[in-house]
Amino acid sequence: MHECMLCERDMKKSKSQFGNGCINNIFKFLDMKKPARGKNKEQFLYRNIMSKTNISGVNKEQKIWLADRYLTFQYLDKLHYGNFDKLKEQINTDIDNINQVEKFEEMITTRKMKLKEAYDLYKKERKFENNLSKLENGNYEEDDEKLKLLITSFSYIFNMYRNKNQYEKNSFKEMQYAFWQTVIEVGGRYANFKIAAEFLQHSLEEKPEDLFFSEGKVVEEIKKQEQFQETISKIIKKYGSNNYEFVFDSNVDEDFPVSFSNKDLYFAINKAELKMIGKKQNENWNLDIKLHDRYDYSEFKKIDKYYKDTSSVPKSIFSSTLYNLAWYSMKCNVMKEYNIDITFKIKDFEVIDL
Q1: What whole-number distance in Å separates Cα of residue 130 and Cα of residue 133?
Q2: DSSP 7
Q3: Of 122, 178, 336, 338, whose CA is between 20 and 30 Å from 115?
């Protein structure tokens, strides 16, 4: 089997090193004018590369190896994500010493980065940047499927287990970071998920510190949530109906899970631990409340199984699809875990009649 140097597809009986489509792509990539006669393309390419690298006196095989390393360098040089500086220096050294190479495998960079790997990474990055631009500039007010398909198109940068090349892994990790920055911007613009965006941004820091809240927007949003007030009322009915004081801990009694109908809070804080001390005053209650959550995306969820706002497309941007991508980013250490602790008081709480 004779494979194309660039894409490694079987060229069957062809004696060329590159398939016709690939050689045309290379000329376009290098912004090089093709020769008039098609059969001279490869030799023209070799001569052009020798001229650009100031290399002469190489044999037939060394010309091919030179082209392999030169093209590998050029594809890596066009990448915006990942650090390839040291590798490119080593490739340049291999190029400078190509006259002395007797076997292709002698060059250390051939084991670190194959031409096809550099080419594939270049194509993947172009695809990523094109889709990232669509995500940044798109309008999703009336097209849920369009947004869903676009988000799914980024999934390949999260599949780190199939990518054994460490350079590719590092590149994909940087793409993930850029992806989440765009999600934060788009989510804030269309869905007004200010709290969820803030918590997500914090997870992208190198070493995020734990967050503590005792006042401000987070606390005020929680206090006014009807679903949260109903949960508190159920707890008071169970523990305070015949008492003037009670202590509740969700780690002891799991019958009252904390969740929010507010979409922003739902994706920022969900299934948090709740501790509460209640003291009765007249017919109402004074409450000391503590919420604890671990920002960790610990549970991989099936797409569309969990909460999704169907009334507004922008608000579905933090659907389970993105949740699962965040799960992968946690595994890749792009996102980092941290604790969220929220403490506040509610005075004169009136139990809701459920």
Answers
A1: 5
A2: T
A3: 178
In a domain, 1, yes or no: no
Q: How many domains does the chain have?
A: 2
Q: Mean pLDDT across the stretch 157-179?
A: 85
One domain for residues 89 and 167: no
Whether 352 maps to a domain, the answer reads: yes
> What is the C-alpha to C-alpha distance for residues 305 and 310, in angstroms, rounded to an integer?
13
Looking at the fold, whether 85 and 164 belong to one and the same domain comes out as no
pLDDT over 50 at 186, yes or no: yes
Determine the Cα–Cα distance for residues 290 and 165; give it in Å rounded to an integer. Answer: 45
Mind listing the pLDDT tens digit for each residue in 275-328?
A: 999 999 988 999 999 999 999 887 665 544 444 444 444 445 556 678 888 888
Distance (Å, rounded) from C-alpha 53 to C-alpha 62? 13
Domain span at residue 292 reads 138-354
- Residue 173 CA to residue 332 CA, distance in Å, equals 7
Query: Is pLDDT above 80 for 1?
Result: no
Residues 14-52 as b or e (16 or more Cβ within 10 Å = b): eeebbbeebbebbbeeeeeeebeeeeebbebbbebbbee
Largest CA distance in the chain: 99
* Residue 130 lies inside a defined structural domain of this protein: no
pLDDT score for 150: 84
Closest C-alpha among 68, 34, 36, 35 to residue 49:
68
- Which of 70, 93, 120 is at the close of a domain? 120
Q: Which residues contact 245 (CB under 8 A, 6 or more apart)?
A: 277, 278, 279, 280
- pLDDT tens for 251-280 read 999 899 888 888 788 888 877 999 999 999
